[in-house]
Structure formats: structure tokens, C-alpha cells
Amino acid sequence: MRFRFKATHVVLAMLCVMYFITYVDRVNIGTAASEIQKELGLTHTQLGLVFSAFAYPYLLFQIIGGWVGDRFGPRKTLFWCGMIWAAATIMTGFVNGIVSLFIARVALGFGEGATFPTATRAMQYWTPADRRGFAQGLTHAFARLGNAMTPPLIAALMAWLTWRGSFVVLGLVSLVWGVVWAWYFRNEPKDHASITEAELATLPPRPTGPRPQVPWSPLLRRMWPVTLTYFCYGWSLWLYLNWLPLFFKNSYNLDIKSSALFASGVFFAGVVGDSLGGILSDRIFKRTGNIRFARLSVIVTGFAGALASLFPILFIHDITVVALCLSAGFFFAELVIGPIWSVPMDIAPKYSGTASGIMNSGSALAAIVSPLVAGFVIDATGNWYLPFLMSMGLLLLGGFSAFLMRPEQPFEEGEAALSAANTVAAR
Fold first, then answer.
1. N or C: less crowded end of the chain, CB within 10 Å?
2. pLDDT: is 427 or 142 the higher one?
3. Which residues contact 375 (CB under 8 A, 6 or more apart)?
């Protein structure tokens, strides 16, 4: 009997590959930054502006992109997103100054803006409800694997093809993924030629009737604590993603290859954290039946652990100790990912693409502010540790704001009905 992969597993694997590629394409500039900075004559503040350029359209398209994913389906949305971010990555290899580099990074953010909310929409109907934390944790683990592999990968490609050639090669890989996705994926699991009845029986039922209109105001009210919490996480994430290779290079006078290896080691800790956070949250939910406890216990532990792990680097500057502390901090921060990306599906299953877009706008906003502030602080003080001190304050805030989230209260059973009643009464 010929072995066949389950269609649900193949779809999840393709989403894992997408998360991996998107993060390689968005963080590759951190490793190439020293050569780009030298060739284009950029200050750290200007480099921070370039780092943040990705996030302006990325922020805009979190909510819009989530709505697009809900409206047109993950198949078309992710295909066209892939084409845009691939073209932007290739374009980066041909820039000739800060303006063209800024534009290329803006185009990348435009292409990647809708990807994660739309992927959440795909997982909504292709993943059993009791494995959402695992699926979110696994896909984001591949994103962190992309983080971990990018520094040595880009360093090797730069040595072979220069930094410009490395961007062209990565863009071509993205093009291939987009074509394969459009060929294999179907918005409705039942329409896929390879899916079995046994698989369909494990998947959540699709809602019947006309597509519901998004109740924006009450949904925003429910999601703002999740968005704030994710902003606090995102501040640290983007500090790590954009500045870590340069932190090791400039603080310890390392060459590109050595700084890339140190950064890669830190990012590998995030791969473990992503996977473990989702698994722990799902297991706690299965054991207790308490969705709030299952999500918040892991999220708060992640924030607290990350804060405690970063504290020693303010006083001890030995490179081994600092690398271990940064690795532990990234591990704990990434525990947050699996459970918090499950929260939009817990709260608003009918609007999971839009809800996850609202949440991810917090990280997108952090992606704008965090690199700009870090670059300015480094230029003004020459101190590469101060940005991490600021990050610790945001981690503390995130741990407290997490308690405001209510994943155990499905949105449709309360606010949506109230919103509809208020609309009728107003008429």
C-alpha cells in the first residue's frame, strides 16, 4: 500500500515553509546591514529608519489584510502576497541609496502584511480546534527557525554572491512557494482531492448562510488587550530581529561570520520556545478544560521569564553570559506565540482573520517604533545595552496586560448580538 501524506498535514507543512521564508526575507537585512551601511553610507538612525520601513504597510495591512483573507480566501490572498514580497526581496538587491532601499522594504511589508492573519484563517478550517495552539506554535517555530538560519545563510550567500545577490536568490525561492501554494491549497477542505472523510470529521464545521459582516467596533473593544499584549512582545522581538547581529558585531568587535553565529544561536532558542508554548497551552487546555488558564498561564510565564533572563546583561558583559541570557530571554518570549495566536480563534472564530490582524497590528506598530528608538539611542549614547533595558519595561507591561484578555468568552455569543441590537434600535 502506497504511503500518502494527509492533506491537513501537507497544508500545515506549507504554512510552516511560508512562515520560514517570510521571516528570512524580513530579517535578512539585519545580517547584511553592516555591508549595506558601509556601501550606502548610513548612520545607525538611518539604518533604524530602513528597518522600520517594512512595518509601515505591514501595520496598515494587518487589519485590511485580515479582512482580505476572510473575504477572498487564503488561496488567492497568500498567492498574491507571495508574488509581491518575492518581487520586493529581489528589488532590494538592486537598490542604490537610502530612498530606493526604503521603498523596497516598504514593498516587502506590503506583501507580507496579510500573510499571518490569512494563514490563521487557513488554520481555522484546516486544523482541529484542540490543536490550534500546536499549529500556531509550530508555524511560528518555523518563523524562528528562519530567524536562526538567516544570519549564517546570508553570511554564506554574501561571501558567494555579495549581499545583493543574496536578496535575489531569496526572492526567487519565494516565487516558487507562491506558485506551489496556489496549485495545492483549497479554501474549503472538502474541495481538496486528497482529503479523507476521517480528516474532515476532525475539522471544525464551516458556518452556513451568508458571510457575516465584521462588527468592527465591538471586535476592536474585545481585541485591544490582546493587541496591547502583543505590542509589548513585539517590541522585544523586533529589537532582536533587527539589531542582534550588529549588537554582537559592534559590542564585541566580531566579524560578520562570528556575529552571525552568535545571533543564530540566540534565535534557535526561539524555535524551541515557539514549539513548546503551543504544546503546553494545548495540554493544559485538554487537562483542565479552562481555556483562559491554558492561554494566560503560558503567556504570563513567557513574559516573566524573558524579563528575568535579560536582567543580568545590565551588569555582566561577558559575551558568553550575554549570549546565554539573550537566548533564555528569546526562549521565554517565544513561549507567548502559540497561545496568543490561538486567542483570536478562541475569541472570534467567525472573524479569526480580522481578529488576528487586529492583534498583529500591535507587533507591526512595535516594528516601526522599536528599531527607530533603538537606532536613535545607540547613535546618541553609543550604548548597545540601553535598548534592552527599555525592552524589559515593555515585557513587564505585557505580563500585566495579558490578564485583561478573555479568550474563554466567545465573541459571537455576546458583543456581536449586542452590536446588532444597538444598530436596529438606532434605526
1. N
2. 142
3. 43, 44, 45, 46, 47, 48, 49, 51
At 415, is the pLDDT very low, low, confident or very high (cuts 50, 70, 90)? low
Cα angle value 361/366/367 (rounded, 5°): 95
**Distance in angstroms (rounded) separating the CA atoms of residues 368 and 348:** 27
Nearest CA-CA partner of 203 in 188, 186, 193: 188
How far, in Å, CA of 384 to CA of 401, rounded? Answer: 28
Spell out the residues 6+ positions from residue 199 whose beta carbon is closer than 8 angstroms to its own. 6, 7, 8, 189
- List Cβ<8 Å contacts ≥24 apart for 90-98: 90/167, 90/168, 90/171, 90/172, 91/171, 92/29, 92/167, 92/171, 93/163, 93/164, 93/165, 93/166, 93/167, 93/168, 93/171, 94/164, 95/40, 97/40, 98/40, 98/42, 98/46, 98/49, 98/50
**Set of cell numbers at residue 356:** 488576528
Classify residue 207 by its DSSP letter.
Answer: P
Q: Is the pLDDT of residue 143 over 70?
A: yes
Distance CA 240, CA 244 (A): 5
Give the global pTM. Answer: 0.75
Does the structure show a pLDDT above 70 at 233?
Answer: yes
- Statement: residue 273 has pLDDT above 70: yes
CATH class of 7-187+214-416: mainly alpha
| Amino acid letter for position 367 | A
Confidence of residue 288 (pLDDT cuts 50, 70, 90): very high
What average pLDDT does range 64-93 have in this prediction? Answer: 88
Q: First CA to last CA across the chain, in angstroms? A: 64
CA dist list (Å): 317 to 261, 278, 384, 391: 18, 33, 11, 17
Q: Which residue has the higher pLDDT, 258 or 289?
A: 289
Tell me 211's DSSP state.
Answer: P
Q: Rounded to an integer, what distance in angstroms lies between the CA atom of residue 281 and that of residue 97?
A: 46
Residue carrying C-alpha cell 495545492: 184
Mean of the pLDDT values across residues 296-324? 93
